[in-house]
Design brief:
By secondary structure, this protein is α/β, with parallel strands linked by helices. The protein has a single domain (2-144), classed as 3-Layer(bba) Sandwich (D-tyrosyl-trna(Tyr) Deacylase, Chain: A), CATH 3.50.80. Helix content is 21%, strand content 38%. A hairpin with a 2-residue loop joins strand 1 (2-15) and strand 2 (18-23). The chain is globular and about 45 Å long.
C-alpha cells in the first residue's frame, strides 16, 4: 500500500463536472492498493499518517500533526501509484489491485481512519476525477507500507 500525502490549505474533487467534496487545511491523500495489501498495511499507514508532524507550530517549525491542527482529509483512490515504467513508455499496472480486491480495502481504510480520526471526504472509486489542491509549503510525503525499514 502506498500513499502520497500533500499538505494543503484547500482541496476539492470534481466528478461529472460537479464539485463533490471540499476540504480546507489538511491532507489530500492519494491511496494506491496492491494485490498483497491487507489490514496490517492499513493500520500501519493510518498510524504513520495521523502521527506525521508536518504542520507548523507557533515557531514555524513542522512539529504538529493533523490531529493537533484539527485538519481535514480528502482521500482519493489512485491505482497509478503502482505503475511500473521499467520497460517501454507505456506504464504497466500489474501490481495494482483489481477492483474486487481494492474496493473492500479502500472501504476498510476509510472506516479505520474515521474510527481513529474524524469523518473524512473521499473521491469515488473508479470514477474519472479532477482533483484541485493548493499545496501548502509545498509539502509532499510518500509512505509505502512495503518500506517500513
Amino acid at each position: 500500500m502506498k500513499i502520497i500525502i500533500q499538505r494543503v490549505s484547500e482541496a476539492s474533487v470534481l466528478i461529472d463536472s460537479q464539485v463533490k467534496r471540499t476540504i480546507n487545511q489538511g491532507f489530500m491523500i492519494l491511496l494506491g492498493i496492491t494485490l498483497d495489501d491487507n489490514r496490517e498495511d492499513i493500520e500501519w499507514i493510518i498510524r504513520k499518517t495521523l502521527g506525521l508532524r508536518i504542520f507548523n507550530d507557533e515557531g514555524g517549525i513542522m512539529n504538529k500533526s493533523i490531529t493537533d491542527v484539527d485538519g481535514d482529509i480528502l482521500l482519493i483512490s489512485q491505482f497509478t501509484l503502482h505503475a511500473s515504467t521499467k520497460k517501454g513508455n507505456r506504464p504497466s499496472y500489474l501490481k495494482a489491485a483489481k477492483p474486487e480486491i481494492a474496493i473492500p480495502l479502500y472501504e476498510l481504510f476509510i472506516k479505520q481512519l474515521e474510527t481513529q480520526f474524524k469523518p473524512i471526504q473521499t473521491g469515488e472509486f473508479g470514477a474519472d476525477m479532477k482533483v484541485s489542491i493548493v499545496n501548502d509549503g509545498p509539502v509532499t510525503i510518500i509512505i509505502d507500507s512495503k518500506n517500513k525499514e
